Amino acid sequence: MNIKPLSDRVLIEPVAAEEKTASGIIIPDTAKEKPLQGVIIAVGPGSKDEEMQVKVGDTVLYGKYAGTEVELEGKKYLIMRQSDVVAILG
Questions:
Q1: Which tens digits make up the pLDDT trace of 46-90?
Q2: What's the whole-model pTM score?
Q3: b vs e for 10-43, b when ≥16 Cβ sit within 10 Å of the residue's Cβ?
C-alpha cells in the first residue's frame, strides 16, 4: 500500500465488529456498533509541536466519531490525528 499520512496523522485499520454476543445471539449489521479499536497501519512524521507516540502495529482505542473513513484496495481505513487516539492497548 502506498499511503503516507502527513504531519501528526495516523492510518488505522478498524477491528471487525462482533458478530455474536457472549451468549451466542447473532447481531445484525444494523445493530452493530462502530468499532472503537484498531491497528495502526501507517504514521506521519509528526509536527514541530507534537512528537509521534504511536507506531505501526500498535493496537489503539479512538473516539467514536474520530477520523475520516477511506477505502483503499477494497478495505476500509480511518485517517485521524494522533490526538484522536485515546489509548494504546498493551
A1: 998 889 999 999 999 998 888 999 998 899 999 999 999 999 997
A2: 0.80
A3: bbbebeeeeeeeeeeeeeeeeeeeeeeebebbbb
Q: Distances in Å between the alpha carbon of 22 and those of 15, 19, 25?
A: 17, 10, 8
Q: Rounded to an integer, what distance in angstroms lies between the CA atom of residue 90 and that of residue 22?
A: 23
The three cell numbers of residue 75 are 478495505
Rounded to an integer, what distance in angstroms lies between the CA atom of residue 75 and that of residue 65? 19
Grid cell in block for residue 7? 504531519
Distance CA(44)–CA(85), nearest Å, equals 14
